[in-house]
Amino acid sequence: xxxxxxxxxxxxxxxxxxxxxxxxxxxxxxxxxxxxxxxxxxxxxxxxxxxxxxxxxxxxxxxxxxxxxxxxxxxxxxxxxxxxxxxxxxxxxxxxxxxxxxxxxxxxxxxxxxxxxxxxx
Length: 121
Prior knowledge:
The protein has about 120 residues and is mainly α. It has helices at about 1-5, 20-30, 35-45, 55-75, 80-95, 95-105; strands spanning about 10, 50. The protein folds into two domains: about 1-50, no CATH class; about 55-105. The chain contains six helices and two strands. The protein has a two-stranded antiparallel ribbon.
């Protein structure tokens, strides 16, 4: 994902007409794919840059959902004890077991309706 590589920064978006523009577009295509890079460059190429948000809240929510799903797989279908599952998940995500227990007590957060126009996806 683009936010994993460039979140919180301004990314140069090029139309791909110059050597530098082609190189920049190639980097973008490697990260998000050819089709998405074409659409992004078409939408923002004339501006020359695109601010990429960090999306920390979304990133954490997705991580926490993966943690809860892994715990369910371990304990419901995998025959693992809750404590063993929490220890394994804590090691995998480099978090404390106490933090994993807090995450497991949470419910999935529903994001507010977006007011942003859907341009690319």
